[in-house]
Amino acid sequence: MKKLCACGCRRTTAVIIKTDKKQKRVKGAHNKFINGHNAKGKNNPNFGKIPTEESKRKNREAHWTGDKVGYKGAHIRVKKERGTPRFCEICKTTDKSKRYEWANLTGNYADVKDYKRMCCPCHQEYDKKRIL
Questions:
Q1: I need a labelling partner for 89 at 20 to 30 A (CA). Which of 10, 98, 99, 132 fits?
Q2: Rounded Cα gap, residues 86 and 96, in angstroms
Q3: Is the dihedral of CA 47, 48, 52, 56 positive or negative?
């Protein structure tokens, strides 16, 4: 017997291959949803609603932390605004087989302009000197 996805898409769900007690799934039974469909269709509280520009903006701003950004988030922000480094500003190398990183200069991770492109050896050497 075929079972339809509970999201309302009218597609048939797969049969469960292995019993999983934690997720309360029994071998031979059908999944309730197709993978990824649990928030789609008529069961979604936003079904049929068109997102406004304001709601899109609020969703983007919800993840913005400003100057309280962490180490990883700061580097992601720099890469997004300034791109992926493809050369070293210290040794001037552009070798494509080398890996290049954004190195923070003063410890002010929130400032996007406070980074230099460096190859890994130059970055490590720079950090060693800065720590001492």
A1: 132
A2: 8
A3: positive
How many Cβ atoms are within 10 Å of 101's Cβ, its own excluded?
A: 19
Nearest C-alpha neighbor of 25 from the set 16, 38, 13: 16
When comparing pLDDT for 71 and 104, which is higher? 104
Extents of the domains making up the chain: 1-49, 68-131
Cα–Cα dist 118/122, whole Å: 6
32 close to 24: Cβ distance less than 8 angstroms: no
Tokens of residue 123, six digits:
């970055």
* CA 109-78-92 angle, 5° bins: 100
The Cα 116–Cα 95 span in angstroms is 17
pLDDT in tens, 47-56: 666 767 776 6
Write the single-letter amino acid at 44: N
- Does the reported pTM lie above 0.70? no
